């Protein structure tokens, strides 16, 4: 069986991501690329998939307008999407890729999508994370 954990780790190192934490047994890597706005991005190697999750913000107040805006923004995201955690209060960027034939270009595309999302949508993310009563 292919060593997917080391494959993912090698891609991270090639792309100059800072590995903050790794747990091979659980298949978890936590990485940063502060210049790209990526902080504590969690990667979970769980064959047959690789999961990327980045906490974005917590929703407070009445969330209806936030939900609508997030769903509309999902349409523009090339790889991944906004999702809610099990509590419905935390907004996360999430993407899943098939790991068996994963190449560095596909891997990097998810990271680029997240970085672009964070840079283009920063103002709205900041506004959403503040208390509001939509």
Walk me through what this model shows.
This protein has helices spanning 4-14, 64-74, 104-120, 122-129; strands at residues 18-23, 28-33, 38-46, 49-58, 81-84, 90-98. The model has no long low-confidence stretch (mean pLDDT 91). The protein is 35% helix and 33% strand. By secondary structure, it is an alpha+beta fold. The chain is elongated. The protein has a six-stranded antiparallel sheet. The protein has a single domain (4-129), classed as Yope Regulator, Chain: A.
Structural class: alpha+beta
Radius of gyration: 15 Å
Q: Which residues sit in consecutive blocks of at least 5 with pLDDT less than 50?
A: none
Query: What is the CATH first-level class name?
Result: Alpha Beta
Characterize the largest beta sheet: strand count, sense, and whether it forms a barrel: 6 strands, antiparallel
Helix content: 25-40%
- What is the N-to-C succession of helices and strands? HEEEEHEEHH
Distance between the termini: 51 Å
Number of helices: 4
Overall strand count? 6
User: Per CATH, what is the topology?
Assistant: Yope Regulator, Chain: A
Mean pLDDT across residues: 91
State the strand order across the main sheet.
1-2-3-4-6-5
CATH architecture: 2-Layer Sandwich
């Amino acid at each position: 069986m292919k060593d997917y954990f080391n494959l993912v780790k090698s891609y991270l190192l090639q792309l100059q991501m800072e590995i903050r934490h790794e747990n091979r047994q659980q298949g978890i890597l936590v990485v940063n690329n502060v210049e790209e706005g990526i902080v504590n991005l969690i990667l979970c190697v769980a064959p047959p998939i690789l999961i990327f999750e980045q906490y974005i913000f917590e929703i407070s107040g009445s969330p209806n307008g936030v939900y609508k805006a997030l769903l509309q923004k999902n349409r523009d995201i090339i790889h991944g999407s906004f999702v809610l955690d099990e509590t419905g209060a935390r907004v996360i960027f999430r993407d899943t890729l098939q790991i068996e034939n994963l190449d560095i270009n596909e891997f990097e595309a998810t990271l680029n999508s997240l970085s672009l999302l964070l840079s283009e949508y920063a103002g709205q993310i900041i506004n959403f994370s503040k208390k509001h009563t939509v």
